[in-house]
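Hi all, long-time lurker, first post. I run a small reading group and we've been trying to get comfortable going from sequence to structure in the token notation. Rather than ask abstract questions, I figured I'd post a concrete chain and ask someone more experienced to write out its structure so we can walk through it together at our next meeting. Sequence below, copied exactly:
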Amino acid sequence: MDTAKFLKWFSLVGFGCQNSLLSMVFRYAMTETKATERFNTSTILFLTEALKCQMAFCLLVAEHECGFGGACGKVGQWLRNPRSSLMLGVPSLIYCLQNALLQLSAAHVPAALWQVTYSGKILTTALLSVVFLRKSVKRAQWLAIAIMGAGIAFVQLSKAKEKKQDAMANAHEQNVLGGMLMLLLACFCSSFASIFTEMIFKR
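-- Answer (accepted) --
Happy to help. Here is the structure in token form:
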């Protein structure tokens, strides 16, 4: 198997595992302790963004094969003239807000319901792409979106509940309605950030 094909399948499996584990990890981390004993969400977000910066710097070094000093020089060039990519800070901040909403909503919404509802970002992305990018959606695509929306609605109406939900450390703090609102807002944040990024690159 050649390197390109291996990376394609590796990325696909990796993203699949990430999406599958995300809801369970968030749910476990946010429900095993009370709010007063839980880790600080803003600290987690800061550490996450710091890790992203380190990974981006490593990728910059690998892409340009310029070493540590060369990468620092390129960062310095950008700092002297940041206007070319300053607009990318908007979706970055929105993604940061989205991550905060996802973590906070996991404390209130069962993992299965969280996972299915968050997949609704496909619906919001399709809607915003029509509104902002003037994209045309085919009938088959609208049918697929409608079926997915019906599936999400069905899960919502089924009132899914975890077996040990009442025994969780934060059971008395859970507010499913509030969690759902945060999760829906996270869907719109994800969709708008991706659409805004596409608009920037198409300018």
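A couple of things your group might point at:
The radius of gyration is 20 Å.
The helical segments are 3-31, 41-64, 67-80, 89-105, 111-118, 121-132, 139-157, 176-201.
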